[in-house]
Amino acid sequence: ESFITLASKTKITVVGSGYVGMSLSVLLAQRNDITVLDIDQDRVDKINSRQSTVSDAEIQLFLAEKSLSLMATLDKEAAYQDASFIIVATPTNYDSVTNYFDTSSVDVVVENALALNHDALVVIKSTIPVGYTKFLQDKFETDRVVFSPEFLREGQALKDNLYPSRIIVGGQCEACKEFARLLTQGAEKNDIETLFIHSTEAEAVKLFANTYLAMRVSFFNELDSYSLSHELDTRNIINGVCLDGRIGDGYNNPSFGYGGYCLPKD
C-alpha cells in the first residue's frame, strides 16, 4: 500500500525559491515529490531545514506542521532527472536602461531543462514579455514549454495559491491539463475557474491584469487629490462610487502610489 502511494506521486522540480517558487513548492509538496533547485546555498539549507526563504506566515506554518515531500538542491542534473514538470520561477527584473525584462535566468533554465530532461513539461511562472514563450518554443523547436501566470501578493503568496482567483495554463495538451489538476488538488478552494489558452494570451493576461490594477490605484489616488483640494470627504465619495457592482470594492485605498515588486515592472 505504501509503495502504491509513493509511486502515485508526481515528481516536480521548481527552479527558484522566491515568493512564487516557495509558495508553489509548499502547495504542491502536500501531494507530490518536490525538488527545489536554487543557486544559493543558504536558501537550499533553509528549505532542507524546513524554513521559508521568504516572509510568509502561511508558508512557515505549513513547513512546521504539514507533512510535505520537499527538498532542495544546487545540483541541476539531479533536480531535472525524472521530473514530470519543471516550473520556472526565477526573477525577471525590468531593465529601465534597455526597456526590456531581463529574461536571462529563464533562458538558462529552459535550455538546461530541455537538454537534461526529454519528457517534462516546462512551465514558466516568471513574468516575461508577451510573445516570449513562443520565441522559446521556436528557438528550441519544442512544444514542451508553456506559460502559466501567477497572481500572488507578497506575504500572502501561499494563501493566494490555496484560494486562487483563477488558474490559467498556456496550452491545451494533456500535460497542461494535468498541471492544472495538480494546482487544483493542492488548493483549498473548490470550483476554481480554469482556462486553457495560448501561452501568448496567458502572458498578456498577466501584464494587462497588473496594468489595470496599477491604473485603478492611480485613479483612486487622483480621486483623493481632487477631494482634498475641494475639502471633500474622500471615503464618502469612494464608498458611493464603489457600491456600483461594475466597479466593486477593491484596490480603492488612496496612498502614495502603487508599489511592490510586480505592478511597477509590469
Automatic annotation (TrEMBL):
It catalyses: UDP-alpha-D-glucose + 2 NAD(+) + H2O = UDP-alpha-D-glucuronate + 2 NADH + 3 H(+). Its EC number is 1.1.1.22. GO terms for cellular component: plasma membrane. The keyword Metal-binding does not apply. One of its GO terms (molecular function) is UDP-glucose 6-dehydrogenase activity. GO terms for biological process: polysaccharide biosynthetic process; UDP-glucuronate biosynthetic process. Residues 201-266 form the UDP-glucose/GDP-mannose dehydrogenase dimerisation domain. It holds the Pfam family UDPG_MGDP_dh_N. Pathway: Nucleotide-sugar biosynthesis; UDP-alpha-D-glucuronate biosynthesis; UDP-alpha-D-glucuronate from UDP-alpha-D-glucose: step 1/1. Keywords: Ion transport, Potassium, Potassium transport, Transport. InterPro entries: 6-PGluconate_DH-like_C_sf, K_uptake_TrkA, NAD(P)-bd_dom_sf, UDP-Glc/GDP-Man, UDP-Glc/GDP-Man_DH_dimer, UDP-Glc/GDP-Man_DH_N, UDPglc_DH_bac. The keyword rRNA processing does not apply. Residues 11-177 form the UDP-glucose/GDP-mannose dehydrogenase N-terminal domain. Belongs to the UDP-glucose/GDP-mannose dehydrogenase family. This is UDP-glucose 6-dehydrogenase. It comes from marine metagenome.
